[in-house]
Design brief:
Layout lengths: L1 H26 L14 E4 L5 H12 L3 E6 L5 H13 L3 E5 L5 H15 L5 E4 L14 H29 L2 E6 L14 H18 L5 E8 L6 H15 L2 H4 L3 H6 L13 H12 L8 E4 L7 H15 L6 H8 L2
Parallel strand pairs: 1-2, 1-4, 2-3, 4-5, 5-6, 6-7
Helix pairs in contact: 1-10, 1-11, 2-10, 4-5, 5-6, 11-12
Length: about 325
């Protein structure tokens, strides 16, 4: 139990450190904190057209990092805006096309970033993700494949693409953007929790396996934030609703009627919290970064779950000669 308490204290202290500057950033988007210098650090961020990805790319570039901001569907206005921003502010920021559901675009995009960087990427931020909301029975296979391809297989593709270079270098960091719903479950949220649970499990396993290679893996678990994810989610959900079969939809009339009508605008949390959490994780010394970091100024229902699972993992496998050192190295930070 003392080990778990130390880990929880580290996460709580880190979260408090990240959220404070976020409040200042909320008051002035152009006056971002300059308390960190990431000069010489290369960071690839997926899903940078809006939301957490866009804010993270801007923040880290302003703090000196060489940022590879990736997004799908180029050319697009969001990419042009980022390029103009980089020119105007003289930021070391490069926009690269990557759709995380495409094997070729992932391979080509990471290769382009490594070529520009002159070597392996230091940090991968797996931010790209989607939501499709409905009762599970209503989720057809088209929706199911798309959300797993994006939220789980996409993160897997990206990790596999950067890891050979990181392992060769003997250093690196992967930050996975999960959710509170990666540890707790809300009815009628479709397969969102299923994908985020899978992402959490895959990321924890990666964290263990990458200890010998000195590559840290951390999972950020945001609460609800008002980003464009709600617009995209409504588009995907409306498409599902329009093709839903009555034999399934008829069992959930009230929930189906609300599909495609979610509104995240009522949330007042500042999305910069997540960008600063990512920057804070990068700033921590290697080998000290927590496995899981809840980020939300409000309720964090996953915290006791995280503490219990860490204790169970350590009690179950911590004494194993084969994998015990890996598990202890992750959970004793």
């Amino acid at each position: 139990m003392p080990r778990i308490n130390r880990r929880a204290m580290l996460a709580s202290a880190a979260a408090a450190t990240f959220v404070a500057p976020a409040r200042a950033a909320m008051r002035s988007k152009t006056a971002l904190p300059a308390d960190r210098d990431f000069t010489g650090k290369s960071v690839l961020v997926t899903g940078c057209s809006s939301g957490f990805g866009r804010l993270t790319a801007e923040l880290l570039a302003r703090q000196g990092a060489k940022v590879f901001a990736t997004m799908r569907g180029l050319p697009r206005a969001e990419a042009d805006q980022l390029r103009i921003l980089a020119l105007n502010e003289r930021l070391n920021l490069h926009v690269i096309e990557i759709d995380v559901i495409s094997d070729k675009q992932v391979a080509d995009g990471v290769a382009e970033a490594e070529m520009i960087n002159g070597g392996p990427i230091d940090v991968l931020v797996n931010n790209a993700g989607i939501g499709i909301t409905s009762p599970v029975e209503v989720q057809d296979m088209e929706a199911t494949r798309l959300i797993f391809e994006t939220n789980v297989f996409g993160a897997h593709r990206m990790a596999r693409a950067v890891l050979p270079g990181m392992r060769k270098k003997g250093a690196g960091q992967i930050i996975q953007i999960s959710s509170q719903l990666g540890r707790v479950i809300s009815p009628y949220s479709g397969h969102y929790s299923a994908t985020k649970f899978a992402l959490e499990a895959m990321s924890e396993q990666l964290a263990y396996e990458l200890v010998p290679h000195k590559i840290d893996v951390s999972i950020i678990e945001p609460g609800g934030y008002p980003t464009k994810v709600w617009v995209n989610r409504n588009a995907y959900t409306t498409a599902l609703k329009e093709r839903a079969e009555a034999v399934h939809a008829d069992g959930y009339p009230q929930q189906v009627a609300r599909m495609g009508m979610e509104d995240g605008s009522g949330r007042s949390n500042d999305p910069m919290d997540v960008a600063h959490a990512i920057a804070g994780l990068i700033a921590l010394p290697p080998g000290t970064r927590p496995l899981r970091l809840p980020v939300s100024p409000g309720n964090k229902p996953q915290v006791p779950i995280n503490e219990v699972t860490a204790r169970v993992q350590t009690d179950w496998l911590g004494g194993s000669p084969a994998v015990g050192p890996l598990v202890r190295a992750v959970h004793q930070r």
